[in-house]
Amino acid sequence: MITRRAILQGVGGLILGSTGLASYAVAVEPGFMLEVTRYRLTPRTWPAGLDLRIAVIADIHACEPWMPASRIRHIAEVANSLNPDLVVLLGDFNGGHRIVTGPVMPQQWAEALSALEAPLGVHAILGNHDWWHGPLPRMKADGAEGVRRALKHMNASVLENDALRLTKNGKPFWLVGLGDQLAYPIGRARFRGADNLDDALEQVTDDAPVVLLAHEPYIFHRVPERVAVTLCGHTHGGQVNLPIVGPITANRRFGADLVYGHAQRGDRHCIISAGLGTSIAPVRFMRPPEVVDLTISGPPVATA
Hints:
By secondary structure, the chain is an alpha/beta fold. It has helices at 4-32, 69-81, 106-113, 128-132, 145-153, 197-202, 245-254, and strands at 35-41, 52-57, 63-64, 86-89, 102-103, 122-124, 157-158, 162-168, 171-177, 184-187, 190-192, 210-213, 227-232, 261-265, 268-272, 290-296.
């Protein structure tokens, strides 16, 4: 026979367990955890002898108390410890929700990120939250000008439908940055983008390999074979990944193959970062914040 005491103990345990999970999802995983997720890609079209290491930082969503400048500085130091050839910043520097105690202004997060070091530089694109509002959702939008100024002040290149030719050990490659695909809200769940993939790729003037930076992964379905690797953020890897419910919700929002990790179409590769901050609510569950450590290499160099 189930006693009243047993029922109360069971209910109490369920409440405590739920409270513990909620505390973990709000305080521990998003605020204290930081993983380095490593990928190694060998696209068929990538030239032999060009080994490129990229540190990927996405979706910082700077705000107090969840993503203060001190945590952003720590993230920069973790990225530096990977000894990357270049660092890419994939947008959404502004905070993503209103459950905050205050903003982290662009000059503050830019100062924290100014610690980033890489021989081939730091390169950035913008995200939807950088366009939609100021440092926090309740603050007035400025067409992302504050974010652009902050990035340029920290000597990061800002790529908006631009192509940049870089060279490592005498071997060239192109870094192409796409304008944001959701920049202009035009109605309920409807947006007009600032992206122009065709114009950006027209600036690629030789057959060196191409790495594309795109905040949202939606573009990947129409990226041409000319692009070897596409790097994206935006999805937060689903952010909250409850068994069954989490994947279904994320798949519905972003597409089943464009939520997180490595996607491939033919010889086109896409890496989707889980990012670092949070949007909608300051919660992460089973998708910790991450810095991506990506190595791209070609076939081994033949020896005599």
